[in-house]
Give the backbone structure.
Amino acid sequence: MPPPMPSSSADPKSKFLVLVTGEIAYAEMTSTSTMYCKYFFNYGPDWRFLSGIEEGISLTATRARHHNRIVLNTQIEATFQSTNPFRWPQLVVACYGPDAFGNDVIRGYGSTHLPTVPGKTERKIPVFTPVASTVMHKLIGFFTGRRAEYVDPRIVATSEGREVTRVQTEGLITANFNVIIKDLKKYGYDCVPQSMSQASEATMPLFPDEDKPAQKYSPPPQDMPTSSVQVHYEEPEEYRPITTESDPPSNVEPYDSDQQNVHPLDEND
Amino acid sequence: MAEVHVIGEIYSAHDFPDNQLCCRWQLQTGGGWRVISGDREGQTQTDLPTTEAAYFAHPLNIHLSTRTIQGWPRINIEVWHHDQYGRQEVYGYGTAFIPSSPGEHMIDCQCWRPKGTTRDEIMQFFVGGGLQLRSISALESPAERVKLQTVAMGVVKLRISVITRYFDRFGICC
């Protein structure tokens, strides 16, 4: 079985743009009342961060008295460029807040993919903290303020190695995104069903079992005559009517209505 | 070859008898599909939440190529429960198709667990454990599903975005 064709096109100019604006609006946490959050973006090797804020920190916010939301109101703006939608960018947030003794401790990590459809999307991002492996570690962490943390928060955006971790979800962060996408359709991709009604003009890669590349308009087949070749037809024969006997047989006597020439029956009697 | 990008996450699990859960997932496709990059299977973290539902937010990034629209990919999910003694038991199985139209979709995958005899059910209530499928083929082939007796469990929510490539050139409407 031949290996599948590589998908990212060899054309170095086949880059599309994704512009994201939005905000990390508020957090609803079960046991935290004051926190701030750091955010950054995680994306694959085909992607490049063009402009915007790649890492940011929010204000420090406390829960209201009349409702239980912690309002962060942190604006996000980022422009990405890529050749391949694989490993679409993710927003990663890490929330910190003071504990009972005033130490700055981790309150939750979370991540979500940026929306792949243009327009406005609202997301609720669950945030979780790693759980200490033993009760002893949990108590030490509570009193000293050194709780279990990830060395690199980027791990929450990946899927490797997650199966051995135990975590505790502490709450949800609500984020709004507005997404603009440019030139995705030009390279053959459809991110919404409405754009499928119009065929793209991207060149498709070679299928492994065909000799010639699939083109939008196939060239005419080779054996059809072109204008330089004269087709020779034979002259038709002149039309000659089929010749029939020109005169009726002569030994037929004209009809004798008076019956005068009747041969008597008893002539040779 | 047409291509499909699956970008999304196994988001959360609701309505299970207990909320200390983790998920194993596996991608199942027909013969004409190839995974170009991304994982075919994985396991989420184990969530011991303070919230009512269990949240995984486990990222899915799969890039597939296909020469046919038959055998559209689906995700087979196993939900595992971690009880307070640290033991693990199966809390449900479920299957969901990857949506076939480009865009963002929130999918509910309803889960069930195999049901045994009355004795098995009573044992499971007091001791834990319960029945498991011997192999994942029961999720894959409908002929084997027919023989199953099951009990309903909860719902696993997945948020999946699909980006297709070259489908418009083949006259596909989806």
